[in-house]
Amino acid sequence: xxxSTPNLLLALVILxxxxxxxxxxxxxxxxxxPIHFNMKGEADGFGERSSIFxxxxxxxxxxxxxxxxxxxxxxxxxxxxxxxxxxxxKKFALFMVIFMxxxxxxxxxxATNHSINITKLLLPLLGLAFAIMGWYMPKLHQNYFAxxxxxWTLENVDNWNETHKIxxxxxxxxxxxxxxxxLILPSVAAFIIFITATVIMVIIPxxxxxxxxxxxxxxxx
Length: 221
What we know:
The protein is mainly α.
């Protein structure tokens, strides 16, 4: 048995949970269920009850693609790959599988519980995911598939390392603020805050990386 087989089997089990839940509630569903929600968390699109499997299906496909990509980066990334990254990428691959499975569960649950505001579930979850990504970022070595893949970070290892140190702090704090803010604020305000924070979390490391590049890849004190 290959070393990757247990992880793959675990990923398949995790991704199958939303399908099991959808199959369990399927007989009790009405003929029409919500399949799309606006930023207030209100249903604004409906489909047949068989659509209950759509959300888990999409999340499963994305989860498997991400799992295979992160688990096999060392096989096709032309950047210098460090062996110690392999275990970290495999752990992150399983994290993404768990995240996608939870997303599938939330989508399925919201389709059957109209009183639940889906934005109050999805946005805090996304904020926590960003925070966890922030924790991982300083540990990333140069690669073409994860992190801030800017011309200056891919060209210079010091620029990559320092940019991801900054990005890690910004995403960790930003993600926690997103999770808390979107949980306590009204839906529209929560959506605006979430998008604004995401833009800021991208801009700060990008500007830092460019300024470091313009400074000859020396850290500005």
